[in-house]
Amino acid sequence: ENVVKLYSFLLQYLKDLFEDASEQDIREHFQLLSKIMPHLYELTQLNPERMSNTLLEVIKEKYGEFRKNHKMYPSLDTLVYFKLVANLYSTSDFRHPVVTPCFIFMQHVLSRSRVRTRQEISMGLFLVTVVLEFVSQSKRLVPAIFNFLQGIVHMSIPKRDVEQLEITPPFERDGPLSKLLALSANTESTNLEPEKLQPADLVTQTITPDFKVRALDTSLLLIKEALQLVE
């Protein structure tokens, strides 16, 4: 019983850490998560059924919140729980009491939530990364991740007002959001170097030229990874 309480406490602790994370502390929080992860794994092994039920209840609560407004991305702690599941459980099983609900939940977010800010784009790319972890063994084809990555590439293409490229929701085929990540043709943008997404991207709203490069570069790498899985 005490072990279950400790497990619940750690889950709540992660919620408190990431729910209100800022640019200043988000990197430290992820470093702490890496240190806590092995201990959570050990606790899970002590009583797999009880621990799984505890985590599943948290996921159910998060999904209930998401359903109330599915156009909004869930809070960052929800994404951290998904990452937790990817590390604590075997994701190769066709059905799993914890993995399967999370797998469906993530696809719903990628397919339904609006993508308008740096944070939402980063959260989506984070989710794609976790989904790919989920299917790394089973090599399942997940249309939601291809649609999302295609949407990010679509947003990175400069378009004239008369141009319309077909795209699937939650992305828009025209208007300002359809070229949200497109770089303007100026000298400043030509000096930008590709780099990985930063932890701060998950808690920042403003889209900058260097973020546009990061988002596109990450998307292209994830497309390559996803295609290699299903070849």
Overall shape: it is: globular
**N→C terminal distance:** 46 Å
The assigned structural class equals mainly alpha
Into which percent range does the helicity of residues fall?
55-70%
Notes on the protein architecture:
The chain is an all-alpha fold and about 230 residues long. The chain has one domain. The chain has helices spanning about 1-20, 25-45, 50-70, 75-90, 100-110, 120-135, 145-155, 185-190, 210-230. Helix 2 packs across helix 3 (about 50-70) and helix 7 (about 145-155) packs antiparallel against helix 9. It starts with a helix and ends with a helix.
Topology of this structure?
Blueprint (H helix, E strand, L loop, with lengths): L1 H18 L6 H21 L1 H21 L7 H13 L10 H14 L5 H17 L8 H13 L31 H4 L18 H22 L1
Helix pairs in contact: 1-2, 1-3, 1-4, 2-3, 3-5, 4-6, 5-6, 5-7, 6-7, 6-9, 7-9
Protein name: CG5824
Keywords: Nucleus, Ribosome biogenesis, rRNA processing
GO biological process, one term: maturation of SSU-rRNA
Characterize this entry briefly.
Keywords: Nucleus, Ribosome biogenesis, rRNA processing. It contains nine helices and no strands.
What key phrases describe this protein's structure?
single chain; 231 residues; mainly alpha; 62% helix; globular
